[in-house]
Amino acid sequence: MKSSSPLKWFGSREGLYYLALAFLLAVILPLVLDPFRLNMVGKYLTYAFVAIGLVMCWGKAGILSLGQGVFFGLGGYCMAMFLKLEASTPEATAIQSTPGIPDFMDWNQLTELPWFWEPFHSFSFTLIAVIGVPVLLAFVIGFAMFTRRVGGVYFAIITQAIAAILTILIIGQQGYTGGVNGITDLQTLKGWDIRTDEARTALYFVCVGMLFLCLFVARLVQNRKLGRILVAMNAQEMRVRFSGYDVAAFKIFVFCLAAAFAGIGGAMFTLIVGFMSPSFIGIVASIEMVIFCALGGRLSILGAVYGALLVNAAKSGFSESFPELWPFAMGALFIGVVLAFPNGLAGLYRSYVMPLEDRLFKRGKAEAQTSAEPVATTASAEKTDDYDPMINTYSPEKS
Amino acid sequence: MFDGYTSSELMSIFAMQGFAGLSLFSVFVLMAMGLAIIFGQMGVINMAHGEFMILGAYTTYLTSSFFQSYLPGLFGGYFFFAIILAFLICAALGALVEWLMIRHLYHRPLDTLLATWGLSLIMQQAYRSIFGAREVGVDLPEWMMGAFQVTDLVELPINGLFVMIIALSIAVAVYLLMYRSGWGKNVRAVVQNRPMAEAVGINSAGIDRATFALGCGIAGIAGAAFTMIGSTGPSSGQAYIVDTFLVVVFGGAQSLIGTIISAFGISQAQSTMEFFLSGSMAKVLTLLVVVGILMLRPEGLMALKVRR
Prior knowledge:
Chain A is mainly α.
């Protein structure tokens, strides 16, 4: 793509989509919703990080990971460990038999902090670990699998097994991890109480900001040659390999990228929700994350955000009023998104709403011409320049 | 982890846990057989396999209640009716699912995975609505209770033995069907080269449907057998699905022998380690070892030699 000035980009159609999302998340929702609901939207948004990662990894590069919950959870646990240590000062835990260690360790007869908890006293280490730990694990898995050309369903099953392993491990090692309850009772972040309404609203905006950061990183990747190679690899892996590209390296990269996004999402989740538990990591949670991405449209990073928001909002809505209907709706969603609209919401938008938009744009252009303005409208000029994330379509007919 | 045990004690521990592992082995074999057919032969991931198994289990439960109320004289033999019924019901549902859903997705294996996951959610919730969230169990007929005393330490419960016999007979039957019958030859032909198989007049769509139905039917038998050794709840199937997939992949997807060997290895490793470690650590270690080996040898234990 040509380098265009940022200002012009915001006037383009793609820019408008991003602006609309930013307006919705940063202006409309905070105005309309009370702090409790806003906090819930913040929680849904943390899943959008995972969904964006899945768009890159599954939608673009064709690597279906059923273990994104692992990376989400690792990021979340790193943050939770830091917050828990901050909450477990010797003064606050004076009634324990060993003051200064988290309460669940004391209940499990641990007398000193395990070695891997030690570094989480440092906030800067935690911030690095939130991304570093998931990426490291993703790199190890990716390196082992992709250099041996394992892909497709085998990869999906093995990532699912890893999600199972991590869940069982966390539940089993109660003294070190908090077990099935997870790490709860988190209070302050560097002395700042995260449980107040103001703090939660502030964290919501931090989450929106981080989300846009991730969106722009993802957009950067997809618009470069890198992104095109990922798509090419998905369609014709052999041809890309024979063209001299190291397919495994690209796959490892995109898998690590998705893991990094998921890790950030997990850390934000811990901050916003105030605890972390193995139920957000396991097989069921991980595979639900795929549906966020699939509903939004597996090729659209913006769609992924809407998908995560919608599915989670529907889930809370259903669970509040008809809990027994939700699994049916969810199951139907899985089947429908695969059989009826494989391009998800983005695909529906493109086939039904975009033609209307086109007509609108055209009318604008006609008016501009009648008023004898000498320039072609920016909209039509930009359209050819900018890669539109909604343009490329997932075609199920490929082999 | 072996500290404080004498070698003779260790021997009997291994023997005891080995026999305990055999019952897990039978469950693995029964579940993995159906999966191995569907996944190995068709390349389709059926995430709802566990739910088909539970359907078989509920069929058995209903049959046993029916026999108890209306045919108490024949109660000793209800299980054989239940097995046949479970097979037929699951196979019929399997054929329906194949026709409605799977056949549109053969060229998209990852999407099949998601669609069948959706199916499994729906089936689970349906069981919960119909049978309730509580686990149900069946009454065993008289002749299936009790145990054989092999040595002082080792005893074999008859129901466990019976399940093992079912597992092995299913394995043998599947082997004969796949490798010694004309139909099996057609299936393998379609797997190896679909266009050529069609060219020589094999109805490949029919083969697909029958294969899928057969796999689901075997899951139903697995479920029926499962009721003999445990109780059934709406989400019991999900608990086994990851293990079973690992069994199939670990064994080498297209090899039935490999599936049996890996089911044996995994169940024995897990059951032996359970004695020395906590149950969860035993499971973690087993799964880690399996995943580790799969990373080094992605084609599984008994790989079909194919040139790519």
